[in-house]
Amino acid sequence: MSTTQNADTVTLANGVVMPKRGFGVFQIPDNQTVDAVKSALSLGYRLIDTAQSYFNEEAVGQALEESEVPRDQIFLTTKVWIDNYGYEKTKQSVVESLRKLRTDYLDLLLLHQPFSDYYGAYRAIEDLYKEGIIRAIGVSNFAPDRLMDIALFNEIVPMVNQVEVNLFQQQQSQLQTMQELGVQAAAWAPFGEGRNGMFTNPTLVGIANAHGKSVAQIILRWLWQRDIVSLAKSMRPERMQENFMIEDFALSDEDMQAIAAEDTNTSLFFNHQTPEAVKMMKDLVVARRK
């Protein structure tokens, strides 16, 4: 993959160009998703990120259809949920996602979690990629060992790995593995849902004040300069616009070093590599069947 620090896109290993500024719809209520996505598109976002387990693919599809932005200018991502893993079930679930999203192709399809039969699921999306239904494939929440595993024991190396990246979980070792494999990093929860005093962190506040920007803009610019795709979420158009406006300033080396010093290498949510996380995911799968 190749990019430049101030470019608005990254180029994936297969040559597909992906926007660095994305709009995510996780936890946006289904009845508010249409307006949120249409607002994001009208403000300039071209990367829209959803998932089967968000239960709002249909609303995203409606928004894309009603938007004045042509489909070929939108980079659409969705993710296969654990309960749809396995070769045949994954393929069927993607057909259903395409129907809900009102499109005949996906720009990026990810496996949402590194649990259950992700090998069968990955081989299914490899085949869908070869058929031209998907422009790029990847994974989400795959730690370095599992990312290396799926990369080395399958035909196609994942082109993207979407993981938690924020001030306190900067994923240095994870990013080294991705770089070695040519996998593009994408950040979910760049704001950490405001946990651990993210928006009042003295380092971020000081840098924000120095640049005349918001803490959110500093976080997103920090990711931009690290060539990490960001997935910001908001239901307020004014906040969406603020999050999008990160091109008119740059963080200095000193700013970047100060932010790097805040890393605790600890998730603000949970560690996917623990037995407790696996049990939690199993419970979540069962709950979402209801």
Spell out the helices and strands N to C.
EEEHEHEHEHEHEHEHHEHHH
Give the strand content: 5-15%
- For the record, the count of structural domains works out to 1
Architecture per CATH nomenclature, i.e. the level-2 architecture: Alpha-Beta Barrel
Strand order of the largest sheet: 3-4-5-6-7-8-9-10
Keywords: NADP, Oxidoreductase
Protein name: Aldo/keto reductase
Family: Belongs to the aldo/keto reductase family.
Pfam families: Aldo_ket_red
In short:
By secondary structure, the chain is of the alpha/beta class. The protein has one domain (9-287): TIM Barrel.
Question: Describe it for me?
Answer:
Helix content is 41%, strand content 14%. It is α/β, with parallel strands linked by helices and 290 residues long. The strands form 2 sheets. It has an 8-stranded parallel β-barrel, surrounded by 5 helices. The N and C termini lie far apart (41 Å).
For the structure shown, list the relevant keywords.
alpha/beta; 41% helix; 290 residues; two-stranded antiparallel sheet; 8-stranded parallel barrel; TIM Barrel
What are the SSEs and their pairings?
Layout: E1 9-11, E2 17-19, E3 21-24, H1 30-42, E4 47-49, H2 57-66, E5 75-80, H3 87-101, E6 108-111, H4 118-130, E7 137-140, H5 144-152, E8 160-164, H6 172-181, E9 184-188, H7 202-211, H8 215-225, E10 229-232, H9 237-244, H10 253-260, H11 275-287
Parallel strand pairs: 3-4, 3-10, 4-5, 5-6, 6-7, 7-8, 8-9, 9-10
Antiparallel strand pairs: 1-2
